[in-house]
Specification:
heterodimer, A: mainly alpha, globular, B: alpha/beta, Glutathione S-transferase Yfyf (Class Pi), Chain A, domain 2, Rossmann fold, four-stranded parallel β-sheet, 13 helices, 8 strands
Chain lengths: 142, 310
């Protein structure tokens, strides 16, 4: 699992359109790793399962268990998957650069949502509905 | 009485934001209501819904505060429907309704505080809370709106941004996801439907329910700016000229962080940000000033004039 800083760099870099399939795979994998960070911070082992054919969706489900506020990024995960399909089903499409760029923006939104205070400040008060996580996080602090 | 008739006269709960940073939303909501012949009766002596601040400290106090608004509408004004245009207020009233119906302890706290405050305790189900989108969609509908359009929004490409609180959490919105005609929690479309009826072209926008960072815009401004910048870029890449909003927190966040992104990150995204009620108002023939475009932080006047609006 790459560090958050390494993942940030993935999203900030322009997607390499020469190999659109590899670029989409990389963004999807990076999105999975963002949620792996979240799941790991909660003291769990990231699932290897898939949901609707995607590990990202299974990871989101795992991350949202007992934590409704995490659903605030459910649609973002689904949009990552949608854009992955859009790119991989038509890798030679004339709009491939824009499609990859959009997938990068959506993935970056997932990164911005989950990272920041949630990760750095011990599951801090990033989200308006995050108090239950905050409380749990505080009780788990040494 | 049909839903269409029921929504023609509603108790109006503007909430705190619409008296301050979201004043143009207040102005445009009232103006659109008047233009459509809908009756808004402001909730008497309304109070804060508990917003995010109270909810994070004591959720039951938030439930009480929201219940008082509903109690006033039901017991002192004899109203059946409360319309809240702010996503935060709408969300909190719906949450209070859910908690009162499903959590005995919340109901006991609300009863105790209501007695102490000297007003009737709100009983779950006394009123129906709706959003401004439900209000126009159900009382007028797309066909009714299309008939009343004087200045079509034709040629304007819009990214509809709903924010996070309009659809989440799903369980407090039992009327959503009920098949054709109902609102969707995963792909909301009521704003898209109304603006399309007014002639606008809606673009496919992947971040329509993504977080704008509104809740921590003061405590962690940099993250908010990055989130907003991402939303602005995605809307622009989707081909939009305008982001339509229906939440005062999202709206002011988008506007302010658009400027902040320019100043702190050196990134400029040229996209206009307008409340859906402002767009609908101008489509109905109202002047830009009448719907408060001059009160927005971002300047859309020239853009609108070029398109024969306002």
């Amino acid at each position: 699992m790459r560090t958050l800083a390494e993942l940030d760099a993935v999203f900030d870099a322009p997607p390499p359109t020469a190999d659109s399939l590899a670029a989409a795979e990389n963004l999807l994998r990076a999105s999975e790793e963002i949620i792996e960070h979240w799941v790991t911070a909660r003291g769990e082992v990231p699932t290897e399962d898939q949901r609707e054919g995607f590990r990202l969706l299974a990871l989101h489900r795992q991350g949202a268990k007992d934590e409704p506020s995490f659903n605030a990024c459910r649609e973002t995960c689904r949009e990552v998957v949608y854009h992955y399909n859009l790119v991989t089903m038509e890798p030679e499409h004339s709009d491939i650069t824009d499609r990859l760029y959009m997938m990068g923006l959506v993935s970056k939104h997932l990164y911005l949502f989950i990272s920041g205070k949630l990760q750095v400040a011990g599951l801090g008060e990033f989200c308006c509905s995050s108090k239950p996580i905050r409380s749990a996080g505080e009780s788990q602090q040494p | 009485m049909t839903t269409k008739d029921k929504y023609k006269k509603v108790a109006y709960y503007p909430g705190c934001a619409l008296e301050g940073s979201g004043h143009s939303y207040n102005r445009s909501t009232k103006a659109v209501g008047k233009a459509l012949g809908l009756d808004l009766v402001e909730v008497k002596n309304w109070n804060c819904c508990g917003a995010m601040e109270v909810k994070n400290i004591d959720p039951k106090i938030q439930t009480y505060l929201s219940s008082r608004v509903m109690s006033t509408a039901a017991n002192e004004m004899d109203m059946d429907v409360v319309m809240a245009p702010c996503n935060g207020c709408y969300h909190n009233l719906k949450k209070a309704e859910y908690d009162l119906a499903n959590d005995k302890e919340s109901a006991e706290v609300v009863d105790r505080l209501s007695q102490k405050a000297g007003h009737k305790t709100y009983e779950s189900g006394q009123v129906e809370t709706i959003h401004a989108l439900d209000w126009i969609k159900e009382s007028i509908g797309e066909d009714g709106l299309a008939e009343r359009v004087k200045n079509s929004l034709s040629g304007i490409k819009i990214a509809n941004y709903y924010g996070c609180m309009y659809t989440r959490p799903r369980h407090i919105f039992p009327e959503k996801d009920q098949g054709p005609g109902s609102e969707s929690t995963s792909k909301p479309h009521f704003m898209d439907d109304l603006l399309a009826a007014a002639g606008a072209e809606n673009v496919d926008f992947p971040l329509k329910t993504a977080c704008c960072g509104g809740a921590h815009t003061l405590s962690d401004s940099d993250t908010s700016t990055k989130l907003v910048l991402n939303i602005l870029k995605a809307a622009k890449l989707s081909g939009a000229d305008v982001i339509a909003t229906e939440c005062p927190t999202c709206h002011s966040g988008l506007e302010m962080h658009q400027i902040r992104a320019e100043k702190t990150l050196g990134e400029t995204v040229d996209i206009k940000i307008l409340y859906f009620t402002q767009l609908l108002g101008m489509a109905l023939g109202l002047k830009a000033k009448k719907v408060g475009v001059h009160e927005n932080i971002s300047d859309s006047i020239k853009f609108l004039k070029e398109r024969g609006l306002g």
